[in-house]
Amino acid sequence: MHRTIFSTPIVNALLRALSVVYLKLAGWQVQGTLPAQAQKCVLIAAPHTSNWDLPYTLMVAFVLRLNIYWIGKASLFRFPFGPVMRWLGGIAVDRSKTNNLVQASAQAIQAAEGALQLIVPPEGTRSKTRYWKTGFYHIATAAQVPIVMAYMDYQRKISGLGPIFVPTGDVEADMVQIKAFYAPFKGKNVGQFETP
Does the model's pTM come out above 0.90? Predict the structure, then answer.
């Protein structure tokens, strides 16, 4: 995987300190820690309803000392923002092309030296959607890594890492359990997040 802001030592330390201070002053509480057995994992990012999710996610990742990468639509990576987005941990995805994103992501996780957490929003968009995509599930299964249920609740101003979820192979049953965990959380745009 490419070098990011999280693997740049001095910058990482400075931004971690700034993130701790900003979140505290803004009234946010960061909860949880990354378990030792989940140093390589897929993080569910939910609810995902606003562009504000990215800067808050980056700050929470600094506070929790994570080494995150995230998947974003290709248009975010157009000139002149591409290098910055990649340095922030972004991986461009062209939704108009049929490519094997699941297999490529799983191989990248397996090949990475050291810790790597791949963030995948199950809604696949900030817009309102009733159906969650299961890409995060299949990436974790293919890479043979756990899923960590990360959350951000704007109403209560809490964010962090929830429990580990190990896929059983029964996607439908597992998705029911995962959605049940996320039901209480409120995104910035509350009406755009559903866990039917």
Answer: no
C-alpha 160/C-alpha 150 separation (Å) is: 6
pLDDT by residue (tens digit) across 145-182?
Answer: 999 999 999 999 999 999 999 999 999 999 999 999 99
Amino acid at 138: H
> Tokens for 163?
């429990």
Distance in angstroms (rounded) separating the CA atoms of residues 163 and 93: 28
Query: 78-88, pLDDT tens digit by residue?
Result: 889 899 999 98
CB 41 within 8 A of CB 162: no
pLDDT at position 196 is 53
Which of 100, 104, 105, 110 lies closest to 120 in space, CA to CA?
A: 105
Angle 162-41-146 from CA coordinates, rounded to 5°: 70
Tokens in use for 101? 């994103």
Count the residues in the chain: 196
Q: State the DSSP string of 128-181.
A: --SS---HHHHHHHHHT--EEEEEEETTTTEEEEEEEE---S-HHHHHHHHHHH
* CA separation for the pair 1, 116 (Å, rounded): 9
3-state secondary structure of 27: coil
Identity at 15, one-letter amino acid code: L
